[in-house]
């Protein structure tokens, strides 16, 4: 049988709700640069094809090469399971690419399940590797890959990063777009979309510079319009989450995009993320009227910490007050503010934790619709804070298997006192929701009366606490949260007071 098939696999990230499947961009990006090689290319996204074995079985005899996309953490589990199947049933070459092999190529290649690791942007190294394998050439000449020779791991020099949108266009017909559309807090049929890639900043916790080298590229406006109109046509979408790394890097591009969305009457509600001081420096206040008119309903700011010492340590290039100033501007133009914060960086976690909670309280007092995503700092190799985390006693996983369970939800860091997790839980699950006077309106009809009762009993106390930055003796929160936990245990339910976007990742 002819080996004419390349399988590209995107593993499930189980920590995330499957209902929120995202278009598997990594493997679609790769496909566009291979489609002229004459292979039968099969894309498998475990997010939507949970039981993919029957699909794979059909190709066992034909697979020449299997490409696996991986991020650090839970996705590695699916990557290991898929590679084990390929190893057991085929003699195909297995290539891993994506964030995990990029940050830890040597450790990745120590696994018997991996023949080659592609480091950084995948399109060109992957293509060159495949061509070299077909022609039985020397892989030592292929830039951006790692491999094993005589029991030793060899890492070739990196390939140059290329404008991600200079390759052939993505073929969205290769996936069932409707499987990637979902309801969220601002739209009934929303899709994840990438209009630009990269970010000029280099924050100490972030992996982006590892691949993009602080560069930034965007699609052209006509291309974006064509793609959004395609999603409207085939998926009847009414919302878009721009999954760009830093959507607002280029003001001219953003404003032109917004004006075009208005001109074409796309009527899409959209949400994305930005960097507070960058927004304040490069955008005019009035720009937000146009941004809102184009459909922006919510903007997420990577506020990270309420402690300026931490912001400086992580090279955020941001002032704490810039976050509040953004909330003011967004609120003025009817755009909801959403902060992502991370607590317990490896210096003075106590002060960092308090200052960040204070920042969230200030923002919530500013706008009752304010939402936040709250998580604990997780060290990643290759980031600037990694060495400091090691110095402070963090012992990292030593193998693919160990990394697959070291998820950001379960990680235990030596400098994080367990009391912070309890306090974070009380704050995000009780105080933040009850600071919203309209919380009950967002609940399902049968939950509205009990939530309204809680609002009557506690909203004023919560607001008093926020104004005075006083969360001492949190008796009311403890009683209510333990009662909810008790009810959930007895009734096997998952009741929560949370707003749909307020999340706490412990
Ligand atoms: C959407 C997204 C998610 C989604 C879905 C991700 C997915 N893969 O489906 C969800 C919400 C699930 C998610 C979760 C997490 N994410 Co995330 N996520 C992203 C985001 C914003 C976009 C991903 C994307 O679609 N990129 C576009 C595609 C085209 O790029 P790509 O995946 O990098 O693929 C290219 C190369 O990597 C390479 N490549 C990739 N796969 C393969 C395979 C082969 C065979 C080859 C040859 C090459 C190759 O070639 C591709 C084309 O150039 C990225 C940021 C980013 N710019 O990538 C962060 C990012 C990947 N996430 C990150 C992190 C930290 C997380 C989390 C740990 C949570 C958190 N605390 O943020 C979890 C971990 C989940 C897990 N491991 O199970 C980090 C990566 C750190 C790391 N070492 O993995 C990033 C870079 C964010 C950051 N700023 O640091 N994420």
Question: What is the strand and helix layout of this fold?
Answer:
Layout: E1 5-10, H1 25-32, E2 40-45, H2 53-57, E3 63-69, H3 75-89, E4 93-97, H4 99-103, H5 105-109, E5 116-118, H6 123-134, E6 145-149, E7 152-155, E8 190-193, E9 196-198, H7 208-212, E10 216-218, H8 221-235, E11 239-242, H9 251-263, E12 269-274, H10 276-282, H11 287-293, E13 296-304, H12 308-313, H13 320-332, E14 336-343, H14 349-366, E15 371-376, H15 386-391, H16 400-405, H17 418-434, H18 448-468, H19 475-491, E16 503-505
The structure holds cobalamin.
Could you tell me the mean pLDDT? 92
Helix content: 25-40%
CATH homology group of one domain: Aldolase class I
CATH class of one domain: Alpha Beta
CATH topology of one domain: TIM Barrel
- The helix tally amounts to 19
Please outline the major beta sheet: 7 strands, mixed
Gross morphology: globular
The number of E-state strands comes to: 16
Instruction: List the bound ligands.
Output: cobalamin
Distance between the termini: 50 Å
Strand content: 15-25%
Our Rg estimate from Cα atoms comes to: 24 Å
User: Numbering strands along the chain, what is their spatial order in the largest sheet?
Assistant: 2-1-3-4-5-6-7
For the record, the CATH architecture of one domain stands as Alpha-Beta Barrel
Low-confidence stretches: none
Structural class: alpha/beta
């Amino acid at each position: 049988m002819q080996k004419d098939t390349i399988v590209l696999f995107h593993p499930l990230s189980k920590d995330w709700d499957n209902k929120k499947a995202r278009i598997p961009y990594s493997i679609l990006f790769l496909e566009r640069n291979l489609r002229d090689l004459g292979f039968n290319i099969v894309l498998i996204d475990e997010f939507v094809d949970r039981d993919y074995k029957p699909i794979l079985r059909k190709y066992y005899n034909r697979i020449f090469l299997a490409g696996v996309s991986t991020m650090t953490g839970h996705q590695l589990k699916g990557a290991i399971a898929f590679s084990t199947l390929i190893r057991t049933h085929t003699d195909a070459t297995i290539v891993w690419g994506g964030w995990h092999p990029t940050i830890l190529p040597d450790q990745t290649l120590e696994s018997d399940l991996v023949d080659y690791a592609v480091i950084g942007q995948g399109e060109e190294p992957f293509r060159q590797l495949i061509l070299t394998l077909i022609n039985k050439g020397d892989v030592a000449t292929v830039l951006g890959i790692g491999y094993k020779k005589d029991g030793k791991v060899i890492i070739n020099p990196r390939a140059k990063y290329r404008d991600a949108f200079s390759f052939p266009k993505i073929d969205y017909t290769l996936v069932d777009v409707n499987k990637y559309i979902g309801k969220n807090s601002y739209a009934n049929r929303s899709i994840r979309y990438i209009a630009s890639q990269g970010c000029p900043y280099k924050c100490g916790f972030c992996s982006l510079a590892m691949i993009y080298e602080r560069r930034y590229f965007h699609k052209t406006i006509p291309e974006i319009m064509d793609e959004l109109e395609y999603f409207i046509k085939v998926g009847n979408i009414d919302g878009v989450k721009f999954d760009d790394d830093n959507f607002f890097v280029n003001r001219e591009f953003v404003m032109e995009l917004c004006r075009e969305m208005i001109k074409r009457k796309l009527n899409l509600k959209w949400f994305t993320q930005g960097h507070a001081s960058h927004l304040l420096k490069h955008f005019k206040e009035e720009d937000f009227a146009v941004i809102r008119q184009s459909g922006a309903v919510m903007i997420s700011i990577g506020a990270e910490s309420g402690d300026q010492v931490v912001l400086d340590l992580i090279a955020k290039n941001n002032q704490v007050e810039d976050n509040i100033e953004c909330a003011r501007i967004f609120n003025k133009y009817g755009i909801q503010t959403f902060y992502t914060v991370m607590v317990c960086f490896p210096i003075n976690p106590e002060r960092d934790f308090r200052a960040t909670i204070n920042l969230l309280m200030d923002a919530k007092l500013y706008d009752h619709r304010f939402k936040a995503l709250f998580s604990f700092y997780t060290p990643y190799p290759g980031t600037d804070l990694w060495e400091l985390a090691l110095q402070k006693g963090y012992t990292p996983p030593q193998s693919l298997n160990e990394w697959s369970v070291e998820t950001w939800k379960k990680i235990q860091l030596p400098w994080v006192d367990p009391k912070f997790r309890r306090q974070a839980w009380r704050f995000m699950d009780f105080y933040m929701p009850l600071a919203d006077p309209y919380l009950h309106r967002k609940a399902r009809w049968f939950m509205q009366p009990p939530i309204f009762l809680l609002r009557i009993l506690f909203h004023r106390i919560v607001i008093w606490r926020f104004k005075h930055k006083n969360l001492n003796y949190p008796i009311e929160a403890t009683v209510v949260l333990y009662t909810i936990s008790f009810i959930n245990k007895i009734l096997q339910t998952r009741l929560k007071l949370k707003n749909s976007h307020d999340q706490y990742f412990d």
